Amino acid sequence: MTIRVGSAPDSWGVWFPDDPRQTPWHRFLDEVAEAGYSWIELGPYGYLPTDPARLGDELARRELRVSAGTVFTALHRGPAVWDATWAQVADVAALTRAMGAGHLVVIPEFWRDPVSGEELEPGRLGPQQFANLVSGMERLGHRLREEFGLRMVVHPHADTHLHDEESVTRFLNATDGDIVSLCLDTGHYAYCGGDSVRLIETYGERIGYLHLKQVDPRILADVVAQRIPFGPAVRRGVMCEPPNGVPELPPVLDAARGLGVELFAIVEQDMYPCPPDQPLPIASRTRRFLASCGA
C-alpha cells in the first residue's frame, strides 16, 4: 500500500486561472520541485499551460508528474446546466488524461463568493436540488470513466452545499459507490466540524483521494462565532501550516493506510492571496513533516 504525497497550486496562493496577486506558474513549478514534491495537481484550468506538449515538457524538466485535475460544477441546478458543465469538464479532463493522471477532483460550486463572501444563493439544497446533485454527479462520473478513463473524486468544501458530516454522509448514502468516490480534504472537513478519521473508518471504500490540510482552531473559533465566510477566513489564516493545527495528520494517515489501497495525499494550504516568498519555506517544512510521518 502506497500513499503518494504531492502538492498543488493552492499551496502557492493560487485560486484562479489568472490573477496578478498569484504566484506565476513557472515559479510554482520550480518551487514545488525544490520543496521535494514529485506529484502536483493542475489547479485552476488555464493557470498552468493547457497545451499538453508544452506542459509535459515543463513538468519533465522538473521531474514532476500530475495526480489530478480540478473542476467546479453546479450540477444541483439541474439538466439545464449539463451541456455547459460537460464542455468545461471535458477540457480539464482531456488535459488531465494527457498528463497521465487518473483522477479528476470535482468540487460543488460555492453558494458564497470565495473572495468576498457575498451570498450568491441559499446555503442549503432543496429536495429537487439534492436529487439533481446526486444524478448529475453520477452521470458525470460515468462519462468521465467511459470517455477519459478518469476516476471522479468529489471534494466536500467549505461554503458549498457539500461540506459537513451531515451533508457528506447523506450524499454518500444517496450515490452509487462504484461511480462516485470522495476526495477527503482534512482541512475543509475539520473547518466544517467533521472528523476525518471517523469518515475514513466508516466510509473507507468511498475514499478515493486525500487533500492534507490543517485548520487553526483558535482562528476557526472566531470564524464560527462571527459567521465569517470562507474567503475572509482564509485571509485571517484559518488554514495553517502542519503540524500546528487540526486534525492531527498522523492518525489520518494511519487510517488511510489501514484501507489497504493506494492513495494520493495532496498537500493544500489555502493562502489566497499571499506574499510571493511565503509558500516555499512552508511547503518544504510540510514535506519534511510528512516524511517524518512515513508519508
From TrEMBL:
<feature type="domain" description="Xylose isomerase-like TIM barrel">
    <location>
        <begin position="29"/>
        <end position="278"/>
    </location>
</feature>
<dbReference type="Pfam" id="PF01261">
    <property type="entry name" value="AP_endonuc_2"/>
</dbReference>
<dbReference type="GO" id="GO:0016853">
    <property type="term" value="F:isomerase activity"/>
</dbReference>
<keyword id="KW-0413">Isomerase</keyword>
<dbReference type="InterPro" id="IPR036237">
    <property type="entry name" value="Xyl_isomerase-like_sf"/>
</dbReference>
<dbReference type="InterPro" id="IPR013022">
    <property type="entry name" value="Xyl_isomerase-like_TIM-brl"/>
</dbReference>
<protein>
    <submittedName>
        <fullName>Sugar phosphate isomerase/epimerase</fullName>
    </submittedName>
</protein>
<dbReference type="InterPro" id="IPR050312">
    <property type="entry name" value="IolE/XylAMocC-like"/>
</dbReference>
